[in-house]
Amino acid sequence: MSTSTTFNYPRTFRLESGKRIKNLEIAYHSYGTLNARKDNVVWVCHALTANSDVFEWWPGLFGENDLFNPNDYFIVCANVIGSPYGSTNPLSIDSATGQPYYLSFPQFSVRDLVAAHKLLADHLGIRKIAVTIGGSLGGQQALEWAIADPDRMDNLILVATNAVHSPWGIAFNESQRLAISTDRTFYSNIPNGGAKGLKAARSIALLSYRGYHAYGTTQQEMSNEKQDDFRASSYQNYQGEKLVKRFNAYSYWFLSKAMDGHNVGRGYQSVPDALRGVKAKTLVIGISTDLLFPVEEQKFLANHITDAKYTEISSLYGHDGFLIETKRITEEISHFFNTDKKHRHEPIYQQVG
Which listed residue (92, 290, 315, 340) is catalytic? Predict the structure, then answer.
């Protein structure tokens, strides 16, 4: 039911900056079967450190017993450029030198990630996408794609994301990169370079993903006598080590910079002008306790995308709620499709709702 494949782009891939990547590879997962009408495509854009196996990291929303299931949909998730899960990234071999890129990897943008998605969609013969969905950096990709290629997608679901990455978000990312750069091995051009710095960066990131109340609930000590070895300390160390085992500092560096540069208004008269270019029926979902992408950012999207619907989910888990609160997200998406059916007098998906 699931297929993991790599698409090799036969031409030179030109980045928004004008720099080029030769031998571009795009790893992706697909699930289910494209139907005869080719109108059952669900395209998932993943977040910063995720991979293309959406069934692995978004269970409860994607799976055989979940809202988006392979029995009804043809689901595609592509690993983004720069990510170490099969697509071309800083540890890939630079054909010009015969060595890994490391820090010589060309800086890319969210729009470059979208350009790669478009190439893959064309390769797969997908001219129409029924639903495009993404959260966080994934939502930034989905939004840019909806603006750049508005006639390809019918429905757009944006979760815990924004039109422009905020100074607050950039400051968090820069703090993480400062942590990485203090690890001298980051400049050694070795696959695990910057590993200790990456662990510290992850610890910083976690503070923006959760927040005071989440830590107070999940990491609270049960004894008044403890003076060291706190649960919160163990949690930070564990999550840092966990990321180091599956990611690399170079990918993290470049992807966080792409996130910082996200601004849909680039090249347009204004950000609202760019958002008005979205043609897809749009649902914007905010997480009430999100510190990294506050709900004001999602409300802004809904206010400037034509006829977009905004809904908000209460969650203890802050930004991470977009990955955890799948039951509530399922309810909101189902309601959105049911409402849309009534307005358009036609079924979008018989299996939804």
Answer: 290
